[in-house]
Write a structure and sequence with these properties.
The structure holds two protein chains of two kinds. Chain A is of the alpha+beta class. Helices cover 58% and strands 14% of the residues of chain A. In chain A, helix 2 packs across helix 4 and helix 4 runs antiparallel to helix 5. The longest helix of chain A is centred in the middle third of the chain and has 37 residues. The radius of gyration of chain A is 25 Å and the shape is elongated. The longest helix of chain B has 39 residues. Chain B is mainly α. The chains are: A alpha+beta, B mainly alpha. The interface between A and B is large, with 43 and 52 residues.
């Protein structure tokens, strides 16, 4: 751990990535209070409203404030700024009542405008075509996008450790069978398999079960690759002296496998978790983009993209609707940069800068 | 003789002495035979799996199938489109849908292998073979173009970068390839399309609107022009990974004792790089390239949908959405066959380029 922190000091990109990820996960955890509005709240006269936060005006000086805008064209939804009209953004306002983590009733939000006295609402990232605040939606959508990676990797790593470990440890027929099964699954292009499974297994289902289904399908597609790696490592470790010793002490094979061999691969496991998570996040995005992801009323970054940013018209005229995609890019890059650092740390030939 | 995948070999070896004596005499032929047998077995199991999964799913696929069939064939349509349960049952019976899935699969296999009939698409009523073969050509052009493009560029860049190890260039290239490797493919394609739409320098669709029948050169030119952005997307999506792989292998090879031995004999650095280290770099790349082909097919699914390219991926997507079982089945089989064939080819290519692998007497 200490080594990790020292190395982190020499790798600014990885340090920034770690910070970004921590901030995003914290924001996701506290999205109820951090988002200024309820993600389903409609602002009927603010459809496709551009972002309206600015930092300076002669009226309020420097500081976060909202530039008032008015729609001049109902059809193409063009807005113009009203010169000289600004509303200040306050820290800690009372607005839409929410339940933090589903049970703690609160109506306190970290920031917002004084909408009761007629100020314009603050749209940090603009709104979608129904006038819903995109910033709040991105924060709430993170709950699905950012957790699906963890849950999925947990499921697929468990499968990989169990099957790959058993195949590597026992060898013989089971090894042959499990490895052939893995090869069969690896063979089919992943996305086709995903598409196929998702479309036959579901038609009408609620958000929670679609979340579970997507996670299971993504894990199903991704475990064979990991299982092959685990099998190879177990296979090479099982003739080591410490395993022979444990076996001579008549330890049960499963104890040897899970308490002695697999802990030896911890750096590999950490690495594959870090590098596996973005794969799951992007898998969910791809499915959502194809309309087979999270079902309504829940939404993820992927379904925000497929709903708002899939049409060229929207992308060209309302570019802020692509922002969920920017978040996806940032998260994916951050995980990969962090994974690169972990890969170097796990490499015995690599020497840390001192 | 080095067996690359002893998968079936151990299985087949038990078949008996005649096989063993034959395979000792014809190593390459026996290797190919065992690989082709594996391929057939894999395809067979895959089809069984697809039919099994289809039967696990709630009955709506069967009903959709029957409904589409009934609505499209006017001969069985009764007045007001009302169908009796008996008629549906009869139809299910005629299409083998009331049987267990292995019988359905057997029926499908019989129809395909003996009658050479892949069936018709449920939605368009077009023969599946026609649909798949026209789309397959398009997809193959796209994927092979990007594969060739990718291979050439990443080899050139990888070898050049390995000579620059430790310099600014190397650090920059490492960062860029990591960046590209981590960049989500869907969003890259969306950004490219956004670029095309806002600058209007490139078309937003990937297939020319004029017909092929006219001027061949005009068509090809327009085709390439339309294909520029999708190819760029596929290229950028794949270059990161392959560049990293080649650079790492190249550096590993250049640290080997045989390179030191070559250097001590005064052989020029360029010669060592191209004729010795490079040849050994091919191995992991070709092994990876068959996986790359599978990736390209996966990636081209999204690419074809975003850029409206009439390829196999979009056909598959539409077939899956509409639950067109004939089409889905043929599609999956074709794509898996292509990838299996790619793996086989890559094994043969390995034997050709890697001096350490020979399917003969060592």
């Amino acid at each position: 751990m200490k080594r990790f922190l020292t190395v982190l000091g020499h790798r600014p990109v990885a340090a920034v990535s770690l910070t970004v990820l921590v901030v995003m996960y914290l924001a996701m955890a506290f999205c109820e209070v951090l988002s200024p509005y309820d993600p389903t709240r409609l602002f009927p006269d603010a459809s496709d409203h551009p972002p309206n936060l600015c930092w300076y005006s002669s009226q309020w000086g420097f500081g976060p404030q909202v530039q008032r805008m008015v729609m001049i064209d109902e059809v193409s939804r063009q807005y113009v700024r009203i010169k000289g009209e600004y509303d200040p953004v306050h820290w800690g306002v009372t607005a839409d009542p929410v339940k933090l983590w589903g049970f703690l009733p609160l109506s306190w939000h970290v920031f917002g405008t004084d909408t009761h006295s007629g100020a314009d609402p603050v749209f940090l990232f603009g709104t979608d075509n129904l006038g819903r605040d995109l910033f709040s939606r991105i924060l709430y959508g993170a709950r699905i996008s950012l957790t699906i990676g963890f849950v999925g990797v947990a499921v697929s790593l468990t499968l990989a450790l169990l099957l790959g470990g058993l195949a590597g440890y026992y060898g013989g027929f089971w090894d042959w069978l499990i490895m052939r099964l893995c090869e069969l699954l690896i063979l089919i292009p992943g996305l086709y398999l995903l598409l196929f499974l998702r479309s036959i297994l579901s038609d009408k289902m609620d958000s929670a079960s679609s979340y579970a289904l997507i996670t299971v399908i993504l894990s199903f597609v991704s475990w064979p690759g990991m299982a092959r790696l685990v099998r190879g490592m177990v296979h090479s470790l099982k003739r080591a002296d410490f395993v022979t010793n444990a076996r001579q002490e008549k330890m049960p094979p499963l104890t040897i496998l899970f308490r002695h061999i697999i802990p030896q691969m911890s750096s590999f496991l950490i690495l594959s978790v870090t590098l596996g998570i973005p794969g799951f996040i992007l898998g969910e995005t791809a499915l959502s983009y194809l309309g087979l992801g999270i079902t309504d009323p829940a939404f993820s970054w992927g379904s925000l993209i497929s709903r708002d940013a899939a049409s060229l018209d929207n992308l060209v005229h309302f570019p802020w609707l692509f922002l969920p995609g920017v978040f996806l890019i940032v998260v994916s890059l951050a995980y990969n940069f962090l994974g690169e650092l972990l890969r170097d740390l796990a490499d015995p030939h690599w020497r840390a800068p001192s | 003789m080095k067996q690359k995948s002893g998968s079936v070999a151990c299985f087949v070896d038990n078949l008996g002495a005649p096989w063993r004596s034959w395979s000792a005499g014809h190593p390459l032929a026996s290797f190919l035979t065992s690989r082709i047998l594996t391929m057939v077995a894999v395809l067979f199991l895959l089809g069984l799996g697809v039919f099994g999964l289809m039967s696990l799913a709630p009955g709506d696929i069967v009903d959709n199938y029957v409904r589409a069939q009934l609505l499209n064939s006017s001969s069985v349509m009764t007045q007001n489109n009302v169908l009796t349960a008996a008629e549906i049952a009869a139809m299910k019976h005629r299409l083998w849908l009331d049987r267990p899935f292995w019988e359905q699969y057997g029926h499908w296999l019989w129809r395909v292998l003996v009658d050479h009939d892949l069936g018709r698409s449920l939605l368009s009523q077009a023969p599946v073979l026609f649909l798949v073969s026209t789309r397959m050509v398009n997809s193959l052009i796209l994927n092979l173009l990007s594969l060739v493009f990718l291979t050439l560029t990443s080899f050139a860049l990888g070898i050049w970068l390995s000579s620059k190890a430790g310099t600014k260039w190397d650090v920059a290239a490492g960062f860029v390839s990591l960046f590209l490797n981590a960049f989500p493919g869907i969003l890259l394609l969306l950004l490219l399309q956004m670029f095309a739409a806002s600058t209007r320098w490139f078309p937003v669709t990937a297939y020319p609107s004029e017909s092929f029948g006219g001027n061949f050169w005009a068509f090809s030119g327009s085709y390439l022009y339309h294909l520029t952005l999708p190819l760029l997307g596929a290229f950028l999506g794949g270059i990161g990974g392959s560049l990293r792989l080649i650079r790492a292998t190249m550096l590993e090879q250049l640290g080997q004792p045989y390179v030191t031995a070559l250097r001590s004999r005064g052989i020029s650095e360029g010669r060592i790089r191209f004729f010795h280290a490079f040849r050994n770099t091919m191995n992991p790349f070709i092994t990876g390239a068959s996986g790359l082909l599978a990736d390209l097919f996966s990636g081209s699914l999204i690419l074809e949908i975003i850029f409206a390219y009439p390829g196999i991926g979009r056909l598959m997507y539409e077939a899956v959405i509409q639950k067109d079982i004939n089409l889905v089945m043929t599609n999956i089989m074709f794509i898996s066959f292509l990838i299996l064939a790619g793996m086989l080819l890559s094994d043969i290519a390995l034997a050709l380029v890697d001096p350490r692998i020979r399917y003969g007497k060592a």
